[in-house]
From TrEMBL:
Pfam families: Nitroreductase (PF00881). Residues 19-184 form the Nitroreductase domain. This is 5,6-dimethylbenzimidazole synthase. The lineage of its organism: Bacteria, Pseudomonadati, Pseudomonadota, Alphaproteobacteria, Acetobacterales. It comes from Acetobacter orleanensis. InterPro entries: BluB (IPR012825), Nitroreductase (IPR029479), Nitroreductase-like (IPR000415), Nitroreductase/BluB (IPR050627). One of its GO terms (molecular function) is oxidoreductase activity.
Length: 212
């Protein structure tokens, strides 16, 4: 099969996709069609992985009981995080919305199988953490594919991972990586919410070059 040529207009659109991908915390409540969610998962699974181990595990969380437990986990961890800030920072932190757990129609926990049979160990002997990196690449691929379809994703990490694993009854070898809120965004923006809220700013890319 001949590899496709990516036209200048495709590249311009791709640039826009990168620019408009956002971490979303404000969702509309209508569900995303199941067929589309499956397509996003299929695209995520095109991500590279060490030794072709495909160690990502996407766990749909639909049970109201489990969702409530995750919500409580988040509330506790977020309250604790607030105590780590003082003065202006604490005030500002308290006003941030750091998860869309109440309104996102879909919730997906992502785990990494840290000891997958698939891939037969290739490439991870010296750096076992490469399984985690592979799974994170799948999350990012899911994120971009979702953005292209007008679907928003918010990554929640303000959680106690051991408790989240227990809530979801996961095997001990599966490392909790992310809790994703997924749904149609209530608003669109080409800048991060944390930047718009004055919490932090992005740096010019050229500052990221380090020469040796
Ligand atoms: C590993 C990881 C964990 C994150 N955890 C949270 C989180 O717990 N709550 C939250 O509101 N955003 C979280 N974010 C989103 C970041 O705040 C966001 O990506 C960053 O501010 C840049 O904004 P953008 O993604 O819209 O460009 C997380 C992002 C990553 C990559």
């Amino acid at each position: 099969m001949t590899a496709p040529l990516f036209s200048p207009s495709f590249r311009a659109s791709l640039d826009q996709l990168f620019t408009w991908r956002r971490d979303v915390r404000h969702f509309r409540t209508e569900p995303v069609p199941e067929a589309l969610l499956l397509r996003l998962l299929e695209t995520a699974c095109l991500a590279p992985s060490v030794g072709l181990s495909e160690p990502w595990r996407f766990v749909r969380v639909d049970s109201p009981v489990r969702r409530t437990a995750i919500r409580e986990n988040f509330s506790r961890c977020n309250a604790e995080a607030l105590t780590g800030h003082s003065g202006d920072n604490a005030q500002r932190y308290a006003t941030l919305k750091l998860a869309g757990l109440d309104d996102a129609p879909h919730q997906i926990a992502v785990f990494c199988d840290t000891n997958p049979a698939q891939g037969r160990g290739l490439g991870r002997g010296t750096m076992p953490e490469t399984t985690v990196w592979s799974a994170v690449m799948a999350i990012h691929t899911f994120w971009l594919a979702a953005t292209a379809e007008g679907v928003g994703l918010g990554w929640v990490s303000i959680l106690d991972p051991a408790e989240a694993s227990r809530t979801l009854c996961m095997p001990p070898d599966w490392q909790f990586l992310a809790y994703l809120c997924v749904g149609y965004p209530a608003e669109q923006a080409d800048t991060p919410e944390l930047e718009r809220r004055g919490w932090e700013q992005r740096n010019p890319a050229r500052r990221q070059w380090i020469n040796r």
